[in-house]
Amino acid sequence: MRNDVLNLAAQRNMFLSPDALEIVLGNSEPLAFMNSVLSSLSANTLFIDKKHILDHISGTTLKKEMRPAAPKNKRQTDISVIPGTDITGESVCEGKVDDFSKYFVSRYNMIRDMLRRRMGAVLSIDRALGMNREIQIIGMVSETSVTKNGHRMLTLEDETGSCKAIILKDSPMINDIVVNDEVVGMTASPTRDGKLLVASNVIRPSVPSEPWCGSDSVSSVAFLSDVHVGSHTFLEGRWNKMMAWMKENAVRSDIDYLILPGDVVDGIGIFPGQQEELVIDDIYKQYGRLAELLKDVPDHIKIVLQPGNHDAVRPAEPQPALPKVFAEAFDSNVMLTANPVYLNIEGRTILTYHGRSIDDWVAGVQNKRLTYEDPVGVMKEMLERRHLAPMYGMKTALAWERKDYLVIDKRPDIFVTGHVHGAGTIDHRGIRLIAASTWQDQTEYQRMHNFNPHPGVMPVVHLGTGLTTMMRF
C-alpha cells in the first residue's frame, strides 16, 4: 500500500514527506484518501507535507459540518440535458461541400467570439498584412511546420484570407503545442513587404479559472466508462464486486447519479479479428446483457448512458444516442444521450465525452508530449483550445453539422472522458477533470503496444463540495 500511495502522488509529479505519508497510511482507505488530497491541491504543488494533509482533513470536516442533513426522503433526482448540446434528432449533415464549409465556419465563429472577449479589437487578416504596426488577428491554423533554422511557421486563415506567421526560435512560445484546425488569437507585427507576420504572442480561448463554489447539494455522481460487455476481457468479477458495494453503500454515500461515457458494449466488426475476442457475438444480445447488468444498480440512481466508437451508432462525432431498437432493453431510470453532451445535474454543468479524439492528440503532437498514460493532460489541452477534437482528417471522424457540437462553449464544473482505459483526476482551474477508467482487462491489441490499462476504478464526485474519490475494485 505504501508504494501504491507514493506512485499515486508521483503520477501527478508530487512527493510526500514521511510525516504526510504516515497520516495517509493511517487512513482506513489510503488510496481513496490520497486521491481526495491530490484533488484539493494546486497543480503547482511539488512537495506534500504534514500541513497539507491536516489542512485537507480540517477543510473536509468543515465542509461535512456545513453540509445540510439530507432529507430522509431525498431520492428525487434533478438532471437534464442542456438544450442545444445533444445532436440526437437534430443532424442535418448530408456530406455536401456546403456542409463542410458551414461546419468550419461555425467552429471559427464560436471560438472567435470567445477570443474577442479576451483580446478586444482585432483586424481581419487581409487588413492586418497592410499595417506597419503591431496588430491582433484571429485565425484557424491550417498548417504548421518548422523551418530549417528552427523557427515555427503557421498558416492562419479567416473569412478574408490567409497568411503566414512565424514564431521565432528564441521566443518563449516556440515549444507551445500547436495543432491543425485550432482557432487562435495572435499579436504580431507585419514584415515590411507585408508577406509575413512575426508573432509576439499567441492567445487561446482557454476556460476561465474559477474556484469550485460549494452548494447545498448532498448528491454524488459516479462514472463507469468503457464497460465493453460482450468481450471475453470484460471484468465481470470486478463489476460484480463494484455493484455489490453500490447496493450496500450507494444510499449512505449519497450516490444518486451514474454516468457511462461510451463503449458500453464491445460491438461487432469494430476492428479486424474482433470476433475472436467476443463471448457475445450478437449486438442485440450485448445490449440486452448490459441492460441486465444495469438492473442491479439501486433504483434511486439515475443512469446516463452515451455511446462511444464501439457502440451501435454512426462513428462520426457528434454521435446521437442509441437508437430505439436498443433503447427498449433498458429500464426507465436509464437516460440515453448523445456523445458529447452537456448535462445539468443539481446546478452543476457536466461535460461528458467518450474521448475518441485522444488518439489524435497523442499521435498529432510531436515528441510524445501527450500520452495515453496521462489522459487528463490531453483533456487540459482540449479546454485550452475550447474544442474536443480540433484536428480534422485523423482517426476521429467528424460529421459536417451546421453547428460544431465539439466546441466547448460552456465552462463545465466537471469534465469526463473515457476511451483510453486510463483512470485519473485533477482539479484544473476549478474544473474536476475525470478519466473514467474501464471494466475491460488488457486486450491483445493493448498488449502488442505495451499499453497497461487501469481497470476497475469508479470516480465519484460530490456535487456540493467537489470532493473527488477514486473507488478501486
3D architecture notes:
With 473 residues, the protein is of the alpha/beta class. The protein folds into three domains: 2-66; 79-92 and 209-472, Purple Acid Phosphatase, chain A, domain 2 (4-Layer Sandwich), CATH 3.60.21.50; 121-203, Nucleic acid-binding proteins (OB fold (Dihydrolipoamide Acetyltransferase, E2P)), CATH 2.40.50.140. The protein is 26% helix and 22% strand. The protein has twelve helices and 19 strands. It has a six-stranded mixed beta sheet with strand order 3-13-14-15-17-16, with helices on both faces. A six-stranded mixed beta sheet has the order 12-11-10-9-18-19. β13 (341-345) and β14 (348-353) form a beta hairpin. α1 (2-10) packs parallel to α3 (30-40) and α2 crosses α4 (50-66). The relative contact order is 0.15. The model is unreliable at 61-73 (pLDDT under 50).
DSSP strand count? 19
Distance between the termini: 15 Å
Give the uncertain stretches in residue-range form: 61-73
Strand content: 15-25%
Shape: globular
Report the sheet with the most strands, covering strand number, pairing sense and barrel closure: 6 strands, mixed
